[in-house]
Amino acid sequence: MKNQILILLAVVILSACNDTTKSSTTNQPTLADYQVGEKWTWKYKGVTTEGEVRSDGKDTREIVSIDGVLGMTIGKDTIPVTEIVKPEESETPKYDWPLEVGKKWRYENNWTSQDGTTGNQSQDAEILSYQEETVEAGTFMAYTIKYTGKTTNSRGYNANEEEVWLYSPEVKNFIKLTQTQGDFFYVEELIEYSKPD
User: Fold this and answer.
1) Per the structure, how many domains does the chain have?
2) Which pLDDT value is given to residue 18?
3) Residue 141, pLDDT above cutoff 80
4) What pTM value is reported for the model?
5) Are 63 and 52 in contact (CB under 8 A)?
6) Structural domain contains residue 47
7) CA–CA gap between residue 186 and residue 40 (Å, rounded)
């Protein structure tokens, strides 16, 4: 009963004002949580242990309305928000909703790149904490989610990896990602978040 009350309270607070909540349980955002003009900008950089920079730039996403349908711009594409908030029907999801400190699960991801290379990610996930975290965009309550495992691909690549994601319910997205994969280190951090008043 106590957990049901906490979940209900989290839903009411998130949907009513979308402000930071001290709740220890967070449900997946819904379509109603997004608004036209909401915008996120991250900076990212990936470097090998030899110092070779393999990626360095910025990624901006924004909520737009196309013929009355909310969409999120991602690069040159616009993805309907209904697709983003659709529950992931997987036994091994990236985020195992509702989020709660101490929760553990297995994440599996099979993929195919544009050049036809196939691969697999297999990781153990655990939510370590829910506390204030500061990034360039500001200070937000965030879950620290640690993923540990392996990435392999059809070209013979096989690397241990560790990822730490800071997920903020207020932002409805991650505010920082650090990843170590073999000899590659990657960091992505939210540098700007805004929404209409």
Assistant:
1) 1
2) 39
3) yes
4) 0.84
5) no
6) yes
7) 19
